[in-house]
Design brief:
heterodimer; A: six-stranded mixed beta sheet; four-stranded antiparallel beta sheet; 32% helix; B: 384 residues; alpha+beta; six-stranded mixed barrel; 12 helices
C-alpha cells in the first residue's frame, strides 16, 4: 500500500453489524458547584467496525471530551460506554493503559512526536510499549513509514520534517501496532488544504486496508467528504447524525458548516 | 522503553547540558566542602598519626586534645610497664619552649622528646639526616615547614634560607644543633616542631616536679588494645586511651571548640539544600517542558509504573553523570588548592557518602517530578 494507490474520494460505506463503540447517556462534568461545566449531557453514539465517523460542532461542545472518554483517557461520570465490548468503568488504570496500548491508536492535532527521538523510534513507541523487542519494533516502524512515503527519512528527527510529514509519522505511530480503533483529534487543522487532503486520503486508505474504525474530531469542513457518517454535537449532546445524501450536502457547505 | 527514556533526556543537547551542569554544580558543592571539612578534621589528629607505633597513650585525665598535655609523674611510666599485656612503654615529652634564632628573634616551638634508647615516637619520614642522629650531643630534628618558614635563617646580606643540617639554635638558652629535617602531616594547630631525645628535652625544659607528657604504649601481639587501655587506667590511675580514642577526643574537642563543625556543617548542609533545589528545579522544569510527551506516552498505553521507571532512570543516569563530573571538579579543585595549604581530603567513604546524598537528592527530585507525571491526565494530549 502506498499513498499513490489510496482513494481520493471513497464512497460512504454502509456500517457493518459490528459495533466498536457503543455509548448511551454518557455524561461528564468538569468542576463542582457554580463553576461546574457539563461537557457531556447524555451522549448516545454508536460507531461501527470499519467506518470513519467525524465528530463536528462548535468549540466547547464536548467533542474532545467525548473522544477522550471513547479512547479511555478520561473517565465518564455517568451512562454506559463500551469499546470493543469492554467497559472502561470495569478496568483499573493499568488495565485501561494495557487496553489502549493494544486496541487504540491516536493521532493528535499537535502530532506530539517526541522531538529527541528519530521518526522511526517515535513510530516504534506503541510496539515497545507492547513489549516488542527493539530491533523488531524498529523494523516494523520502517515498514510502516515506507507505506506512508517516509521510508528514506527514518533516521531524521521530527523537527526536520514538514507539518504534513510529521502528521504522516503520527499516523504511522497510530497504526503501527494494528489497533482496532483510531482516534484522531483535528488531524488536519495544522495543515494546509492540499496536505490535509493527502493526510485524510492516507487515513482513509489505512482504515480500508486494516478494517480500522476511525473517530475523527474536526472543524475542517473540507474533509467531511472522507466521512462515512458525521455526528454533529452542540452543548454536550449529539444533535444530528448525517449520512448518505445529507453527508454530500454537508461536504459542499464548507463556508457554512452543518448549515448553521 | 528505558533506552528511549535515556534518549529522551539526552537528545536535546542544550537542555541536557544545562541539567548536567546543574547537577555537577550541586555535586561539586557537596563534595568539595565536605572534603575540605574532612581535610581540616583529619589534621586535628596529625600528631597521633605521626606517632604510629603507639597503640595506647597514657595521659592526665584532664587532657582534652594532643596539644593540651599535662605533666605526669615518672612513676606512671613504671606502673604502665607492669601492666599485663604491655609490650613496651616509653615516655614522651611535649611542651612549648622558646627558640632563639641566629638573627636574635624568638619563636615559640613544640619540643617533642622521645625515648633515648629506642627513639620510639620520633619522626617517621626523614628528608635529611636520620633518626639515629638524635643520639649525637645537643641534636634536634626540625620539621620541614618550620625549617622553611618560621625558623629559616636570615643571612648577612638580608636574604633568607631554610634551616639546614648543621645549623645551630638556642632552645630556652641551651645550645642545639640541627641533625635532620623531617616531614610530618599538616597539623590543625601549627607551630614549629623540633624532635629531640626525652632526656635532652628535659634539659631544655624549665625545671618542674613533673615533666613527662605522655607514656606511649605498645601492646603485645594479639592483645585487645581497648581492654589493655582499661587495665592501664585502672592500674596507674591515669587515663589510657587507644590511639583511635585519643584521635577522636582531639577531633571532637577541636570541632566543637573552634566552631569549624558548625561553620562547615552549615556549608555542607547548604550544599545539600542548594543541590536539592537545583536538582529539583531542573528536573521539575524538564518534566513540565515534556509534560505533553509524557501525556502522549500515557495515552498510548504506558502505565504509571513504567513512566516512573523512565523518570527514575533518567534522573539516576543524569544524576550519576552529574555526580561524577562534580566530584571530579571537586578533586581537581583540591589538587589546585593543596599548594596554598588548604586542608582537602576526599576518601572513598566521603565519595560514597556524598554519592548517597546525591542519590537522595536525585530520588527526591524524581519523586517531586513523578507526582506531576502521576497527576498528568492523558487527556492533556487532546489539548492543543
Amino acid at each position: 500500500m502506498t499513498t499513490a494507490t489510496m482513494p481520493t474520494q471513497p464512497p460512504a460505506r454502509p456500517p457493518s453489524g459490528d459495533v466498536v463503540v457503543a455509548c448511551k447517556g454518557v455524561t461528564k462534568t468538569y468542576g463542582k458547584g457554580d463553576s461546574a461545566v457539563r461537557a457531556l449531557r447524555g451522549v448516545d453514539l454508536s460507531v461501527h467496525k470499519g467506518e470513519m465517523l467525524m465528530l463536528v460542532g462548535p468549540s466547547g461542545c464536548g467533542k474532545t471530551t467525548l473522544i477522550s472518554v471513547v479512547a479511555g483517557v478520561l473517565d465518564r461520570d455517568g451512562g454506559d460506554c463500551s469499546v470493543l465490548g469492554k467497559d472502561y468503568a470495569n478496568m483499573n488504570q493499568a488495565q485501561k493503559a494495557a487496553f489502549r496500548a493494544v486496541n487504540v491508536g491516536f493521532v493528535f492535532q499537535a502530532f506530539n512526536l517526541i522531538p529527541t527521538l528519530t521518526i522511526a523510534e517515535n513510530v516504534a513507541v506503541p510496539l515497545l510499549i507492547n513489549g516488542v523487542p527493539r530491533a523488531q519494533a524498529l523494523a516494523r516502524a520502517k515498514e510502516v513509514l515506507t507505506l506512508v512515503g517516509l521510508g528514506d527519512r527514518t533516521k531524521d528527527e521530527p523537527r526536520k520534517l514538514s507539518g504534513g510529514q510529521q502528521q504522516r509519522v503520527a499516523i504511522s505511530r497510530a497504526i503501527v501496532h494494528k489497533p482496532k480503533l483510531l482516534v484522531c483529534d483535528e488531524p488536519t487543522s495544522a495543515l494546509d488544504h492540499a496536505t490535509g487532503q493527502k493526510v485524510m486520503e492516507l487515513l482513509r486508505g489505512v482504515a480500508a486496508g486494516e478494517d480500522l474504525t476511525l473517530v475523527v474530531v474536526t472543524h475542517d469542513a473540507r474533509i467531511f467528504e472522507f466521512a462515512d457518517r458525521i455526528a454533529e454535537m452542540d452543548d454536550g449532546h449529539i444533535i444530528r447524525i448525517i449520512e448518505g445524501q445529507g453527508l454530500r450536502k454537508a461536504t459542499h457547505v464548507a463556508e457554512n458548516p452543518l448549515g448553521k | 522503553m528505558i533506552r528511549l527514556a535515556i534518549k529522551m533526556i539526552m537528545g536535546d543537547r542544550l537542555k541536557y547540558l544545562g541539567l548536567l551542569i546543574g547537577l555537577a554544580f550541586a555535586a561539586t558543592l557537596i563534595t568539595q566542602q565536605a572534603s575540605i571539612f574532612m581535610g581540616y578534621t583529619r589534621r586535628t589528629w596529625a600528631f597521633i598519626d605521626d606517632t604510629p607505633h603507639a597503640d595506647i597513650w597514657v595521659m592526665d585525665e584532664q587532657v582534652r586534645f594532643t596539644e593540651d598535655s599535662k605533666p605526669l609523674q615518672d612513676v606512671v611510666l613504671y606502673r604502665t610497664r607492669g601492666v599485663p599485656g604491655v609490650d613496651w612503654a616509653m615516655p614522651m615529652y611535649r611542651a612549648q619552649l622558646p627558640v632563639r634564632l641566629a638573627d636574635g628573634s624568638l619563636e615559640m616551638t613544640n619540643i617533642i622528646g622521645v625515648d633515648d634508647a629506642t627513639l620510639l615516637g620520633g619522626p617517621v619520614r626523614m628528608l635529611d639526616g636520620s633518626l639515629e642522629d638524635l643520639r649525637q650531643a645537643d641534636s634536634v630534628i626540625v620539621e620541614r615547614r618550620a625549617a622553611e618558614g618560621d625558623l629559616k635563617i636570615t643571612q648577612a646580606d638580608g636574604t633568607t634560607r631554610p634551616l639546614r643540617v648543621g645549623d645551630t639554635l638556642s632552645i630556652n638558652d641551651n645550645a642545639a644543633r640541627v641533625v635532620g629535617i623531617c616531614d610530618t602531616r599538616d597539623p590543625f594547630y601549627w607551630q614549629p616542631s623540633l624532635y629531640t631525645t626525652y632526656s635532652r628535652a628535659l634539659q631544655f625544659a624549665p625545671q618542674q616536679r613533673k615533666l613527662m607528657s605522655y607514656v606511649l604504649v605498645g601492646a603485645k601481639p594479639g592483645e585487645d588494645v581497648n581492654a589493655l587501655a582499661t587495665r592501664i587506667s585502672d592500674f596507674t590511675g591515669e587515663k589510657a586511651r587507644t590511639a583511635k580514642d585519643f584521635a577522636s577526643l582531639t577531633m571532637w574537642y577541636t570541632l566543637i571548640n573552634t566552631g569549624i563543625l558548625v561553620n562547615f556543617g552549615i556549608t555542607v548542609a547548604l550544599g545539600f539544600v542548594i543541590g536539592l533545589l537545583v536538582c529539583g528545579q531542573t528536573f521539575f522544569n524538564y518534566v513540565v517542558d515534556n509534560a505533553r510527551y509524557f501525556g502522549a506516552l500515557k495515552a498510548l498505553g504506558v502505565t504509571n509504573v513504567k513512566l516512573l521507571a523512565m523518570i527514575f532512570t533518567q534522573v539516576l543516569v543524569v544524576g550519576g553523570l552529574g555526580f561524577g563530573l562534580g566530584a571530579g571538579c571537586a578533586a581537581i579543585t583540591g589538587i589546585l588548592l593543596k599548594p596554598v595549604g588548604v586542608g582537602f581530603f576526599m576518601p572513598w567513604q566521603l565519595l560514597v557518602g556524598s554519592g548517597v546524598g546525591m542519590l537522595l537528592i536525585c530520588l527526591a527530585s524524581a519523586g517531586i517530578s513523578a507526582i506531576n507525571i502521576l497527576r498528568l491526565e492523558p487527556g492533556i494530549v487532546f489539548k492543543s
